[in-house]
Amino acid sequence: MKKNKSADTVITFIIDNKEKFYRLAFSYVKNVDDALDIVQDSIEKAIRKKNSLKENQSVNSWFYKIVVNSALDFLRKNKRVTLIDDETIENLFPGKYDVYSDIDLRKRLDELPIKFRSVIVLKFFEDLKIDDVADILNENKNTIKTRLYKALDLLHIQMDDFTD
Fold this sequence. Notes:
By secondary structure, this protein is mostly helical. The radius of gyration is 16 Å and the shape is globular. The chain has helices at 7-16, 18-29, 32-48, 59-78, 86-92, 103-111, 114-125, 130-137, 141-163. It starts with 6 loop residues before the first helix and ends with a helix. The protein has two domains: 1-97, Orthogonal Bundle (Rna Polymerase Sigma Factor, Chain: A), CATH 1.10.1740; 100-164, Orthogonal Bundle (Arc Repressor Mutant, subunit A). α2 (18-29) crosses α3 (32-48), α6 crosses α9 (141-163) and α7 crosses α9 (141-163). Residues 104-153 form the RNA polymerase sigma factor 70 region 4 type domain.
């Protein structure tokens, strides 16, 4: 094997963080089966491409990028929206699930264009640094900052409009 992360390291990382990656996939597709398919597809891609992981590259951001790209590919191919009820969400995410205290915020977040929603989800729900978000989304750090501020501004404007 090349001088890079071992296959065992990659597999162990994925197994240790599978719930995180499922939540990320689910945040895109809002469907249990589709999210599982995306995670499975991402794992297959990661195993096939494990040798492309550079020595100084973070396994975390590398695999996040694979999951995000797989989810976006899925959305492009299927172009459908699926709604899910709160009880199902609570059953799927016991404990670690980020609880929305305001149902309007959840609706507004889902209404954001994907490029803004991705930044919000990765930054606030997955607790990633701006540099990691930029790497995952394959964008410039300043572009991600601009999208983050725009997304927060859109959410604020939308929430103000909704509550008036």
